[in-house]
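To whoever picks this up:

The nightly regression suite flagged Haloacid dehalogenase, type II as changed. Nothing in the input moved, so I suspect the structure step. Input below, exactly as stored in the fixture:
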Amino acid sequence: MTSDTARRFADKTILTIDVYGTLIDWETGIVDALDPILRTHGHALASDALLEKYAWHESALEAGPYLTYREILEEALNRISKDLGFTPNEQELERFSHSVGDWPAFSDSQQALRALQRRFRLAIITNGDDEFFALSNKHLGIEFDYVVTAQQTRSYKPSLNNFHVALGRMQTPRNEILHVAQSLFHDHVPAQAVGLQTVWIDRRQGRPGYGAVPRAAAVPDARFVDMRSFAEAILDA
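Regenerated output under the current build:
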C-alpha cells in the first residue's frame, strides 16, 4: 500500500534541501567549536543557551549587508564574547570561523539522500558558501543536481532571493518542487512565501526551545524526525 506521504507528493520531481541543521548536525558542530573558547575565558553555558545566543547574533548579521559566512562566524563570536565580557584572540576567531568542515553529518543523511536520488533530482539551497558546502559534502558524499549557496546569491535565508535564484536555475514548475528543511525561520517561511510545499525535518523533537535558529511560525505540509523516516515515507510505493 502506498503511504499517504508518497501519494501526497507524487507529482514532485525535485527536492530542494537545506544543509545545516537538516543534513549536517550544525548544533553539535557549533557547540563543540564554541564551548571550549568560552570555557577558556571562564564562561560555561548550557548547550541550548549557547545555541540561542549564537542564533540571535547570526540571524542579525545575515540580515545586514552581505558578509561571507566565515566573516559571520567571526563576528558572531565577537558579539557573543562582548555579551560575556571578554575579547577572543585571533587564534580563537580563526579556529571558530574554520570549524564548519568539522561539523558532522547526521548518521541518516547519506543513506537517505542516496535513496531519494533514485527517484528525485536533488538541489541544495544553503546559507553556507561554496567552500564550506564542499567541505560539508565530503561527509555526505552526494553529487547534487543543483547547488545554490549564499555566496552565489549574496544573501542569506530567510531572504526570498535565495529561493528565487534556485527556482530560476531549475526552471521547473513550483508544484513539482518540495522543500525539505529543519529551520522554520530560515526555510519554511520563505519557501512557502514563494509557493513551495515544505517538509519539516524536526531534528530537535522533544528538546525545548529552538536551538540555533530564531523562533518562527510556519505550518509545514508534513513533518518527520529525520531524513531516514522522510525518505522511507515518500519512497513507499
